[in-house]
UniProtKB/TrEMBL annotation:
Name of the protein: DUF4139 domain-containing protein
Domain DUF4139: 184-463
Presence of the UniProt keyword Ribonucleoprotein in the record: no
Record region (Disordered): 300-320
Residues spanning the membrane: none
Signal peptide: 1-21
Pfam families recorded: DUF4139
Ranges of biased composition (kind: Polar residues): 300-311
Top-level taxon of the source organism: Bacteria
The entry's keywords: Signal
Amino acid sequence: MIKTWSATTLAGLLLTAPALLHGQQTVTESTADDRSALSITVYQRDLALVREQRQLALDSDGTRVRFTGMPGTLDPASLHVRSEAPLRASGLDWTRGNLDTERLLADHRGRTLSLIHDETGRQISGRLLHHDDRQVLLETDRGAETVPLNDHWRIRFSDLPTHRHPLPALTLDLTPEQAGEQPVDLAYLTGGLSWSARHTATLDEAGEQLRLESLAAIDNNSGTNWVDARLQLLAGDTHGEERPVQPMALRSQLAEAETVEREALAGYHLYTLPDPVTLRDGETRLATLSESRSVPVEQQWVSRGQAQQRLSDPRPQGVSHRLVFDNGARGEGSPMPAGPMQVYGPDAEGELHYLGEQRLDATPAGQTVRLDIGRSFDITAERTPVEWRRLDDRGGFEAEWRIQVDNATDETVAVLLEEQLDGDWEILDESSEHERVSARLARWSLEVPAEDSAELRYRVEVRR
C-alpha cells in the first residue's frame, strides 16, 4: 500500500500562523517514552539524521506539544514534520535547555530575590540591581547591599520563568483534520553522534593467510539516550558544511534481519544493523560491519629513500615490514571504510601478538592493500652517497648512490628498494634492473642471503 505523506518543513513552520495564541493554550508534553519507532543514520563526521515517530493525542482545535527527550545538538533548521493524515504544524519554538543560575539571575534583575545563609539562617531579601560571578547587589530596606556568592549563601528564586526549560525541548502547534490519538513523524539533523571503522588483520601460523574483521565504533555525545533505535551507518565523506538531503520516506517500523546489510547509496555505503540498539549518552558501542574472512597475503620488506637529498656521509635507512593483499574480487569482496587496521600475528606456540597498525583510506572491493606495519629489527639498510653533481639552476642534478642491505635472519629475503624521484628522471647506470612504478617512484628488488648482505648501486639524472 502506497502511503501519502502530509509534510511540513521549517519554512512552513515559520510562515504559518500559530493555530492558537500561546497564552491561551495548554502545553502537552511528549517525552521519549511516547516514541513508537526510532531510526538513526549516523555519519562519520559528528552528524546524524534522526527519524522518530510519536503517538500523540491531538485536539481538532489545535494542541501545543512540547517534545522532550531531544538532543541539545539538534539543528532546528533541518526539522521536518510528517503524518499520514492531514496535519498542520506551526509555531516552532526550540530551546537547548537553558535553565541555569546565571540565566535565572539575569531574568530576576529588577525583581525580588532572597539569599539565605546556611550556618546562621540569616535571610536577606531585596530587589536585584546587579550581579556578577562573585556577588549580587540588592536594594533592601537598609539601602543597597552586596551579598557574596559562595558556598555559605543559597539563592531562593520566587518563581521560574516560563520561557526557561531544564532540558532541550521542541515546541509545536499541531492541528489535525481529525482529533484523536495518531502517529506523528519528526525528522531532524543533530550533532553529537558519529562512528568510525576499526579493522583487524590476523596472520596465520604460516604467514600466508590474513583473517580480516571490521567493526564500527559508534560514539554518542549528544546529551541524550537513544533507546531501541534502528541504526544505519553511512560510510563516506560528505563534503563541506552542507547537510545531507533528508529522505522523503520515514520508516515507522524497525527492520528485522540476522546480519548487517550493506547497500550502495549515492556513492556511499550504507550499513544497516540487524537489531535495535540502545545508545547511552557518553558511551561507545561496537558493532560488526562484515563477517570474518581470509585472504592470501604477501609479506614484503621495503626500504624507501629520496634520491634528491644531498648527503656527505652514510646514513641508516629503515626497512619496513609490509603486508600486501587484494580486498577480494571486484564486486565480490567487502568494502572497508576508512579507519585504522591493527595487525596481529602468532608466535611459535600460537599466542597472538600485536605487530603494528596503519590507517586505511576507504578501500573498495577488488583494490590492492599495502600495510606498512613496522620497522624491521634484523633487516637493516644503509645509504651511502658516491657522487653528486648539480646540472642547472632549476634544481637538476646527477647522483650516484650505494644502498647496502644487511640480513641477520636465517632465511634469504627479498627487499624492495623504492626511490622517490621528483622531476623528469632517467637511470643512467644500475647494478640490477629497476621497475618504473610511477612518474616519481623507481623500485628495485634485491635478494639478500641469510646472515649476509647485498647492495644496489645506481646513477640517476633528474631534470626539473
